[in-house]
Write a structure and sequence with these properties.
Strands 1, 2, 3, 4, 5, 6, 7, 8, 9, 10, 11, 12, 13 and 14 form a 14-stranded mixed sheet that branches. A three-stranded mixed sheet has the order 16-19-18, with helices on one face. By secondary structure, it is α+β, with helices and mostly antiparallel strands. About 25% of the residues lie in helices and about 30% in strands. The protein is globular, with a radius of gyration of 22 Å. It has seven helices and 19 strands.
């Protein structure tokens, strides 16, 4: 199979237009990526894994309008990105390297103790930090940090947008300084969008827990609402610079926690809403509330495992005669319920 033929197959796969036999072939090929018979050493496999993760996070919408609940588009961002990265980096090129001297970026104001990089490319650049944490630096974003991290802090300064995957170290918190705010974590994955002179700064959490607060206002325990917030998975906050105001919400496309098997958790057969809500809360770490106890008695049968969360809820709620809406960092289900 040629490169063009394989790319065409992957495009049809992500669009749901390939045959059952073709789908099984692509699934088999994806599964073989981690098999021992593939000629990749451990560092190559890890670098490809990190690069795929970074590309997937960059592909998730950040500045676009939230998808309307009545949209039934099945977004397969992860599969699409995975296909592209694997074709480019594994089969035909295998050119990815963790060595930063082979990554396209411009060093600026670099001295003996600090590094400063600006991504002048049109692609996301994956970089490895001194503690082996990784950062996916978006186009036109710049980052600076010490060549070596000593003491009890790991500190990074960011202008622009980047996604961080931080190695856990309970003794050394990880700090990202962007614009007028500071993001503090111990070990997690999250994104920061702090463009130069921007009127607002946004932080979104994929995994773990993150403290976000105004610069020069260090966190002592639970951050007060006037100076910052604590975010958990699938939550984001936007800080408006002019009035120093924080607005928290759910991310545009909540993702299940790592390790959740949607094909097992979200195939229902005469399942009550009470059970469905429990699975959603457990899988997405999001609180779901109802305005009537009678909603818990409604039942749903169907396979919604391929859908994004909001599309899934839309189908379930319409089928059961209910509706839902996002209220801050919670999901509210309303309706007459069922007897």
């Amino acid at each position: 199979m040629t490169k063009e033929e394989f790319q065409d197959l992957l495009q049809r796969y992500t669009a749901g237009q390939c045959s059952e036999a073709e789908r099984r072939e692509v699934d088999r090929w994806f599964a073989n990526v981690s098999d021992e018979d593939i000629d990749l050493d451990a560092s190559e496999k890890q670098d490809i894994h990190d690069h795929i993760l970074a590309e997937i996070q960059y592909a998730l919408p950040s500045g676009r309008k939230r998808i309307k609940p009545n949209s039934f588009t099945l977004l397969k961002v992860a599969a699409s990105v995975l296909a592209t990265v694997l074709v480019t980096y594994l089969i035909f090129h295998r050119s990815w390297s963790s060595s930063t001297d082979q990554v396209a970026y411009d060093p600026m104001d670099t001295d003996e103790e600090h590094l400063h990089h600006l991504n002048t490319t049109t692609d996301v650049v994956l970089m490895k930090l001194p503690d082996s944490s990784t950062v996916a630096l978006n186009p036109n974003a710049e980052i600076s940090y010490a060549r070596e991290w000593h003491g009890n802090k790991r500190e990074v300064r960011l202008v622009g947008e980047a996604f961080f995957n931080v190695v856990k170290d309970s003794q050394r918190p990880f700090y990202v300084y962007g614009g007028d705010i500071v993001t503090k974590v111990l070990g997690t994955s999250f994104s920061v969008n702090a463009a130069k002179d921007a009127k607002s700064i946004k932080v979104a959490v994929r995994t773990g827990k993150v403290s976000v607060y105004e610069d020069k206002e260090p966190v002592k325990s639970k951050v007060s609402s006037s100076h910052g917030v604590v975010l958990t998975p699938n939550e984001e906050v936007e800080f408006f610079v002019d009035n120093r105001h924080w607005v928290t919400s759910l991310v545009e496309q909540p993702k299940p926690s790592p390790g959740v098997n949607k094909s097992e958790e979200f195939v229902f057969s005469n399942t009550t809403m009470d059970q469905i809500i429990e699975r959603v809360e457990k899988s997405y770490a999001i609180d779901v509330i109802v305005d009537s106890d009678s909603i818990h008695a409604c039942t749903f049968t169907g396979d919604v495992s391929a859908m994004e969360l909001y599309d899934m809820l839309n189908v379930i709620c319409k089928t059961t005669g209910n509706s839902y809406e996002v209220k801050g960092t919670k999901i509210l289900i309303t309706g007459k319920g069922c007897d």
